[in-house]
Every structure is written in structure tokens, then in C-alpha cells.
Amino acid sequence: MKLEAVILPKELKIKVRLVVVMNAGELKKKYFDFFKSKGHAVIPSASLIPSNDASVLFNTAGMQPLVPFLLGQKHPLGKRLVSLQKCLRTVDFDNIGDNIHHTFFQMLGNWSLGDYFKKEAITWSFEFLTDSKWLNISIKRLAVTVYEGDKIVPRDEESYTLWRSLGVPEKRVAFLGKDNFWIAGETGPCGPSSEIFYWTGIGEAPEVFDPNDNNWVEIWNDVFMSYNKLDDGHVAPLIQKNVDTGMGLERTLAILNGKKSAYETDLFSAIIDEIESISGKKYGENLREMRIIADHIRAIVFVLGDENVVLPSNVDRGYILRRLIRRAARYGKMLGVQNLFLKRLAEVVVLEYYVMYPELGKNAERIYSELQKEEEKFQLTLEKGLHEFDRMVSQGLISGVNAFLLFQSYGFPLEMTEELAREKGLNVDLKGFNIEFEKHQELSRAGAEKKFKGGLGEVNEQTIKYHTATHLLAEALRRIISKEIKQRGSNITPERLRFDFNFDRKLTLEEIKKVEDEVNRVIGLELAVKREEMDLEKALKRGAQAEFGVKYPPKVSVYFIGDYSKEVCGGPHVENTKQIGKFKIVKEESVAAGIRRIKAVVE
Ligand code: SER
Question: How far is the CA of 317 from the centre of ligand 1 (A)?
């Protein structure tokens, strides 16, 4: 083990950095050396922006740039590859500040493109982690999971036997279900996985591994990619058996240094030092705020410094970037920082990372100037916006009109207003916000006299059909696209239904088709629609869906469509799904950040 003190360049004050057992560069080098010794070729990190996948805004795993090769295309560097890939995930946004989640992170990975399979992958993972020449982690602190199997993919006895033969005790192996079947999105290369966990708790690890105990932290995932999930949901064997592994650099570095989180390693220490010095506050007393700023500034620098240009804006990647910048600025304010400070922090990030990621050095000017512009713009309104928000708080709910005012006049991303509201124990009326948003769009499109029509305008045979179809659509989206989907707004006319929901990317044509087919399938089941009155609490306990952000009375009607859907709703509805007719989605579009809109008709 090498003990090292790193000196920062002069212009950033001379500081002797923390002494670490292993730094990020050393871990990367060891990983590469190990896999090179096993015949792997090093490939550079791809851009954060996916080049062949329009369905994700950023690369979220090391395998994404390799999809064509996992599907069978020949890679110019051969069948064994190793890399450190830049990744960015926004699904963990609300967890940032804890020990293990990061917006931007780096994934070490090794791949077999139709070459070696389970035996080598597992044996090498184990050797790299435990051998004294490599990471020298005690086996006593490790546990693993393997796939329990399903109707198509058998239980992974081979991996189980391999781990056991390497000395992992029976009680430290857990067979798990869908958590151990890995796929990047809805379709594409996939397969059973075997994950390796490290005990971060105090004292010795318990004899029996409990995957639900948060002290066990996942550090490495070996995926045996031998299947391809097709657009029709069918899981077919791939023409080649691949291995895709991913080891979180941040997490592994933390445990190697005996730290609870990567914020206490060389990856973040200079950034945290600078935040302490700018704010005059201590990290230990302001953990969450400083971690959020440190996490976000790193993500901001890597997005702004990417080889593909992304600038702050109100759509897609630009909006994620804007949210990161504005949230970091607000957290700075919470720490009492009065002046612009993000550019200064960005300089630290660039200095820390440009050797490993030369694009940051190359694009440094763009990073600083764009960041400065965006922070300056927000600085002009942040303080006033916060005063406005405080004034609004007394009203008990942040109305749609107010949330839209904060968005439009003070530049508060909706998610920021939601976070501010949560801190006060309040909700934001998202439906109202969407109405305001739309009203504004329509007004600016068609002139001030054009009136916005909201809600269920009139009740007739056709609108009743649309009302039931809306419930089926919502449930189909949850089943086919994501179980996190909730209604964020609905509007019905005799001509069409319109349904808004939370989801952060465009649906693919295949997904739209699948959702449409699912609604028609359920219509064809001729399910009876029943209404029951019950206490709101009971309805929610029974799993009835309710629109996010809407205040319901204590007693509500719940509509049951067979046992397919249950939803709190005032109705009215058809008596049987067969009355609806044929359902067709005519449009899918973005309506606000993280909110999608579907328009559909019945024929
Ligand atoms: N693709 C897998 C993951 O992201 C292994 O790299 O966990």
C-alpha cells in the first residue's frame, strides 16, 4: 500500500491533501493492469452523451457504448475489453447527499464479447478483490447474490457453485429475483447477474448475508449477458454469450480507504476543502449541503466539459444541467455564501480531473464561461424568489399559479420548488402548475384572447368512454413503462383524452405500440367497472392510484376495472370495458421537465 500526499497547484493555495490508502488513479491502474494481464484491451471512456441510443439522455452504465458489440458486431480491439466509463444518473437525484449515490460517477468494467463466461468472470472478480497483490479485501467482509431463475432463465446454479468453490460461505450467498436480472432499459442485451457486496457496518460482518441491510453495499456487478429483450417483450438467447461487469469506482475507493463515502476520498477532498473555505463552515456540520454541492459541481463540470456540447436550457440534457447548477447555487446560499462561487469550484474540479479526462482541460473556458453566465442569471432572481416562496408558504399548499410564477419569473425549476416545499412539509399543486404552463404556452401561441379549457368539460357517452380509457392507459403505462408513473394531469373532450404523467424521456415507438396494445387487450377482456366508496386512507392502503399532488376529501369513490386497475376518481365511467371500442395513441410529447403527455382517441 502506498501512502501519498498530493500538492495542489500554486494558484489554488498550497494545501497538503489528505493521506489516502489508495487514490482513484491507483485503483484505475490496478484494475486495468489486472485485466490487461488477463488479455483485455483498454478502451477509453466514451462521451457522457450516448451516440447510438436516443432513449436515454446520458450514459448510465459502462455497457451502453458497447451495445452493438454485445449484440454481435466485431469490436476492433478484440473480444476482451476493459474501461473506466463516465456515467450520469438522474434517478438518484433525491438520494444525493447520502453515502453511496452520485449524479456523476465512474464505472470500472471488463467485457467478454462472446469469449469467456461465468467461470472466468467470477474467478477474476474474486481474485482482483481478495488477492494481496491486488485489492487485498478480506473475504470475511464479502457476500454475493445470484439469480434465482424464472420461467425462461434458469436458476444460476453455476455461479453459486463457483462462488462456493472460491470459499464464499453458503450463508453469504443470496438467491434473488428481478434485482439479479440486469437490463439497461426496457429492451436490449440482458441477463442474470451476480452482485458482490461489501460489509461497511461497524465490527465484523454478520455470518448471514441480508441483502436488505444497508450496511452491505454493492460494489461490483457481473452480468452474464446472454439474452436480448425484444420490442415485443420476448426474451431471446443472444448469438453470443457476453460478460458485462461494472464496479463503482467511488464506492470501491471509499471502502478501500475505510471511509463511509467517496466524499472523504481524494475524489472529493479538494472540492470539499474549497467549499469549506468559501463558506467558512465545516463539512462535518453541514454534511448534506456540502455533499450536494460537491456532487453537483462534479456533474456540472463533466457535462459542460463533455466532447459533445450541452448548455443550460429548459429541455432535455440542458434542463438537467440547469437543475444541477441552480440547485448547487441554492445550497450555496443555504451555507451562507453571498457571492458567485460555482466557477471557483469548477476550477478545482478541472484541476483535479483533467489529467484523467483531458477533455475538461480542453473545454475549460467553455465550462467556466457557461457556468458563470448561468449562475449570474440565477443570482439575480434567487434571493427574491426565495422571499416570494416564503410568502407563499403561509397558504398551506404551493398552488400551481405560484409554482409557475417561481418558474417563469424567478427561474426556479419545478423540482426546486418541490424540494423547497418538501422542506416545509408542503406539496406543490402539480396539476395546477401544468395547467398554468399550458395556459402560458397557448396564450403565447394564440394571443391573449384564447382561453384555456381544463378539466372534464362536458359529460356525454364519448367523454365517459375516455374517462375509463384514461384509467386503463395509466395502468398500462405503469405495467409496461415504469411502475413509478403517476397521473400529473388529465383533460378530456368528446374528441380525445389527454393524459400527463411523470417520466423523464420520450417513449419509443415500440413502447407506444406496446402500451396501446395493452389497453386494447384489457378492453377485449370485457372487464366490469365497479365503484366503491371508502375512506381515502383505506383506498390508498388497498393500492388505489391517486393523482400526485391533489388534495382529496377523506371519503372517496374508488373505481375498480376488473382487478386490472383501481383508482380514486369521481367518475363517471362505462360499465364494461367492451363499451370503449378501439384505443389509439395519436401523440406523445413533452409538456414540462419530467412530464410527458399522451393524446389518444377511441374509435
Ligand atoms: N451493466 C451493469 C451495471 O450497470 C454491469 O456493468 O450494473
Answer: 22
